[in-house]
Amino acid sequence: MKPTAAHHVRSRRERTWWAVSAVLAATGIVALLLAWPTADPKSVVLSSTAANVAAQPSSTTTVARSAPLARSAPLARSVPMWLAVPSIGINIAVGRLGLTPNGQVMVPATAHTVGWYVHGPTPGQLGSSVILGHVDSYLGPGVFFELKRLVAGNRINVTLADGAVVSFRVNRVEQYSKTSFPDRLVYGPHGTRALQLVTCGGTFDHATGSYESNIVVFSTLISSTKPRSHR
């Protein structure tokens, strides 16, 4: 999908978003592909396609909104190294995910790893930062198996490469059908410093070997520590 005149790009970050969106749209896959590791012959592909970016969620967790740090000093770009979600016991290193040659979003290598989408802002920068993980595999629960249990007010902490720690407050948890995944809402800039956590969820279709929906946790930056000083 190409931007119209009403969606004039005013920043480098927005230009990056539209460029990525155009690449994905050209391949017919404007969203994320969550798959179990293809190196395993028993793997099953879990895909999602954003056919309608304006779609409403199929289910919603009621939330209390938090005030973003919209007017604080901008954070330097620094890649995420560690993700902690204390309320559901997540404490894990963060990898990096780009695009495959055919324009699909790459996926974590195993069900017990997570990855940050490198074509978006780093956590704490203006825009939507996205970290993806698997809900499970044929071997059992994955790192994001309990993601759907998060509620408004839960804390998410990300340690960056420069030593800064950025903290986010969960605003809401949504479930979207993979046939109407809102890629622009999840990946696009909205004037806030947001972090989205994404996994599969909903009903498992045994005929296709995939889940019918995606779970998305939306959160907003509430605090950040200073980077380490280098002497």
Describe the overall structure.
The protein has 231 residues and is mainly beta. It has one domain (5-224): Beta Barrel (Sortase, Chain: A). 9% of the residues lie in helices and 36% in strands. It has two helices and 13 strands; from the N terminus they run H-E-E-E-E-E-E-E-E-E-E-E-H-E-E. The strands form three sheets. An eight-stranded mixed β-barrel has the order 4-5-6-7-12-13-11-10. It has a two-stranded antiparallel ribbon with strand order 1-2. A two-stranded antiparallel sheet has the order 8-9. 37% of the residues are buried. Residues 1-68 have low confidence and may be disordered.
What's the gist of this structure?
By secondary structure, this protein is mainly β.
Question: In DSSP terms, counting alpha (H) and pi (I) runs of 4 or more, how many helices?
Answer: 2
The major sheet is characterized as: 8 strands, mixed, barrel
Q: Rg, please?
A: 17 Å
The CATH class, by name, is: Mainly Beta
CATH architecture: Beta Barrel
Could you tell me the strand content as a percent range? 35-45%
> Please, what is the average pLDDT?
76
- Fraction of residues in helices? under 10%
Q: Which consecutive residue ranges, at least 5 long each, have pLDDT under 50?
A: 1-68
SSE topology sketch:
Layout: H1 12-27, E1 33-35, E2 45-47, E3 59-60, E4 80-85, E5 90-97, E6 114-117, E7 127-133, E8 136-137, E9 140-141, E10 155-160, E11 165-177, H2 183-187, E12 193-205, E13 210-224
Parallel strand pairs: 5-6, 7-12
Antiparallel strand pairs: 1-2, 3-11, 4-5, 4-10, 6-7, 8-9, 10-11, 11-13, 12-13
